[in-house]
Amino acid sequence: MVWPKRIISWFLTFIMISGTCALSMTAQAKEETEVAAGEQSAAKAEDTAIAEKLTKLGVIDEFDTQTLTNTIKRFEIIPLLMELAGLNNGAETSAVTSPFLDISAFDKQIGAYSTLYKQGYITGDENRMFRPNDLLTYNEAVTLVINIMGYKLFAMRNGGYPSGYLYTANVCKLLDGLTGQGSDPIVWYDVCRILNHAMDADAVVVTNYTGDGEAEFTLDKERTILEDRYSITKTAGIVTGNENTRLRSSDSTGIGQYQIEIDRTVYNTPDAEYAQFLGKAVYAYLKKNEQGEFDVLYLEEIPKKNTEYRLDAADILFSETTGSKIYYTDKNDSKKHISLDAANLVVIYNGKSHTGYGALSDILPKNGYLTALDNTGDQISDVLFINEFQNFIIDSYDSYTNTYYEKYTKEPLRLDPAEDDLRIYNADGSAATIDKLVRGTFISFMQTENSKGYRLITVTINSKSVAGQLDEIFEGDKYLINGTYYELANNMKQYISQGLVAAPKVGQTAAFYLDLAGRIGYYDRDAAQIKGQYAVVMGTEVTGAIANAISLKLFTDEGKIIDVKTTKNLNMDGKRYTLSNKSEIEKVLPLIPVGDIIIFSMNGENVNYIDTPAPNSVAENPLGDAGNLNLIASGSEFRARNGMCHGTDPSQNKFVVKSNETVIFSTPSMDKLLEDTDEYAVTKKLNTSKLLYGQYQNTATRQNIEYFAAYNLEDTKVGISTCLLLRGAGGTGASGLSRSSRFHVFTKFTDSLDADGVHMKRAYYYENGEEGSCLVHDEVRYSYTRAGNAAGDLVPLNNVELCPGDVFQFSTDSNGYINAINVVYRADQSDIKSTYQPDIAKKELAWLTFPSYSMEFNINDGEGAAVGRFIDIDIKNSIMLFDMEDSEKSYQIAVDKASFELFRTDSLKGEPATSASLMEGDVVLIRSETGYDASAAQILILR
C-alpha cells in the first residue's frame, strides 16, 4: 500500500523473524544493554508508563500489567505484527493450506500467517518451518521493528545484515534502556521500549521512481513515524494552567476539568486529568478530534528538565529566607538552600496562583510543606507550590448542611461535593470517598477559593500512627516514642493550651496519630496496643555472667516461633524497667508469664514493650486495667464482671468475642511447652459473637483442655474477648474454625469439574456486590433458620433446593469446596408482605438484640439475623431504624461498622452499596457479628 508521495514501509518485505536471523551487537551496544538471560527484573513504573502511553496512542492494544515481564513465543508476536503493518482489515480468515509445515491449516491464526506470508513478511526457514513455540529473541524483535519502520533499505545501504541493521538500530536509539541482548528471550516491556523509540524516528518518504518502477526513499526530518502513521503530533511546552488556576493568574476561566493549558493554548484531555503537571516541562501528544480541535492523548515530562525539591514546614529557616533563596536544614541538621528565579517566580498556594504576597517568608507554610520546581534544568526553581494544611478530628456530622464538627474545638468544616471541588485521599495517595469520613477520623485538609465560585478542597485521611510508651520529653516539645522523636502538630498544641486535652506524660502508653508532616495530631490511650502482637510465651532465659537482656521464645499470632531479646529499657505493664545487670533482670523475670498470653512490640530486632494479664501498674483503677491486657475468663471460673457469671452452672458462663478478629491460640500442656513445638496453632477465623465455655470445650475442640482463658485489651465495659488460649489442646484445638457466616445471595448452579476432573456443582452468588462462585459437595450439612444456629443434617445437595434470590451462609473444607449451607432467607417465602407498610407511630422503639447462640452448629455457626423494612437512618450517629411485621416494636441498630450491599431481585444482580443507598421501604437483612448485640456487621438490601 502506497500513500501519495509518502510511504511508511509497513508492506516492505523484511528479514523473517525465524532462527535464521542472528543479529549481533557491537561491544558498545552490548555494554549498554547486557543483562544475563532470564534475569530480567520485574516491570518498573517506567515500563508500565511506556506501555500505557503506547496504548493511549493506539500503537498497541490494552494490556495486563502482570504480563509485561513475560517472555514471548513467536506465534504471540503475530497479532502485533498484523496491527503494526496495518493488515488487519485485509487479513484472510482461513486458508486451504498452511505456508509452514509446523503450522496447521486449522490454526486459529492461519489467516494472519497466510496474509503475512503472501505479503513477504514471513518466509520460514529452508525447511519451511516457522517454529511458532520458540521464544522471540532481542535480535529478532529489533530486526522486525527496523523493517516495520520502513528502514530496511537504509539498513541494507549501511552494510546489510547484520552490521547495517545494528548501525540503524543504534542511530534510531532502539537499543536504549533494554535489559537484554542478542539471543536472549525478549520480554514484553522491552518490546514496548523498542516501539516507543521507533515512534520518534523520522518518517520515510518516496523521492523518486526509477525507470523500472522501483521507489527511491529518503527521511523526512520534519515528520516522525508517529505523526505520519497515526496523525499524532508531539509538541513540547510548559503546562501553564489547569482547571483550578493558571500559573500567573488565579482565574482559570476557559479551562475545564478535562482540559489543560500548555503555553497558553487550551487542549482537551478526554481520557485523563493532567492537573498535577502544572508548571512542568512536558511533551504533549496531540490528535485532532471530529470537531477539528486538538485532544491531548498523552502527557509526559520531558526527561532531565523537571527537578522538584520538597521541604516540610518544620525544616524551613524563615528568618534567613530571602526572595531568591529558601534556607532550610536537612536530615543531618546542615544548612542548605533552594535557589529561586526571584524576578519570574510563580507561587501556587493551596492549588491557586498567589500574587502580591509581600515577603516570601510571610507565606511559607507553618503547617504543611512546599515543593520548588525547576522546569528548565538550570537548578534554579521557577515555580513554588505551597501547601498549608489544617488538622481536624471529626466528632459529628450534620447531613443537612454537610458540615463536620471538630472533636475538641467544635469548629465547623463544610465539605459539600455538590458545591465544591472536593478531593479525598488516603494516606498512601489513593482516592477515597466521603463515606470514609466518620466519627473519630483524623484528617488534614487544604482549601482555596477560586474565581468559579467554589472551593478547591483537598482532604487526606491520616492513618499513620505509632503505638508505644512515651519515654521522655526533650526541650519541651520533642517526644521520644519507640526510639524516635516526634513533635506536636499545631492543632495538638492548641488543644493543650486551651485545656481541651491533657499533655502526654512520660510513662504513658498510647497510639499517637501523625499528620502529613509526621507530627502528633492527637493521641489515644485506649488504642495503645493496637499495633502490638499477641504471643504465647514458650520460655524465658538469661545467659552470660554480664546480662542486660532477657531471651524470649514466643509463638506469635502469625503462627511463627521466634527467639528474641528484650531491649535494655523494657516497658512492661505500664512500668519502665532498666535491665542493667543480672539482679535487675532476676526481679523482672518472674513477671513474664510462661505459658500465658502477652502483647509485645519491637524496636528493631528487640522487644521493647510487654503487656501481660497482670494489672497495669499505672492504671488509675487496677480492676479497670485501662489500656492493659485483661484476663476476663479462666477455665470455668469467671470474674464477676459485667453479668457474665451464671452463678450455679459454670458451663453456661458466656462471653463475647470479636468475630473473625479474635485470636485463638492452641498449645501443648504446660510441661511440654518447649518440647512439642509442632503442637502450636493459631487462627483468627472464629465466626461467632457469643461463646459458651462448656460447649466450646466439648464441641469445638472435643478435647480435655488443660487451661482455658480469654483476654481483651481495649474494652472494659463489656467482656469482649480479643484472644483465647487453649492450653493442652494441641495443634488441633484451633483447626477447622475457618468458616464463613456472611450473607450470600444465590443466583444459580452450574455443572463443573474439580481439579481432578470430577463432576461437581458450582454455586454462583453475590457477595459484597460482586459475583463469586464455589464448588459444592454432592452432600452438605443443611439447615434453614434465621439464626443459623441449628445443627445441620447431612443431606443430598438437591434437597437444599436453593432458588435464585435465596440468601444463604456456607462453610468450606480445606479444598475450598462448600460442605455446609444454612439458608437464612427464602426469596419466595418472604416474611414481609409486599403490601406491608411500616407504622412506627404506633410502636415502641427498641434496640435490636439477638439471642445468645452456642457453637453447637460448629461447622457453620450462624450469627444473629433479622429481616425488616428500612424506615430511616441517623447518619450522624450511624443508627438505622427499621420495622418488622407482626412485631409490637420498631427497632434501631448501630451500623457504623457494617458493610452494605444491594441485590436487585428483578435482575438478580448485586452491587456494592453504602448507607446512603438505603431507600424507605427496602427489605433489609441484618447480620450481627461484631460482638455487640445492638451493632450490625452486614446489611443486605433486597430491592
Automatic annotation (TrEMBL):
Keyword Signal part of the UniProt annotation: yes
UniProt superkingdom: Bacteria
Keywords: Repeat, Signal
Record's keyword annotation contains Nucleus: no
Residue ranges annotated for the SLH domain, each copy included: 96-159
InterPro entries xref list: SLH_dom
Signal peptide: 1-29
Name of this protein: S-layer homology domain-containing protein
Organism whose genome encodes this protein: Congzhengia minquanensis
Lineage: Bacteria, Bacillati, Bacillota, Clostridia, Eubacteriales
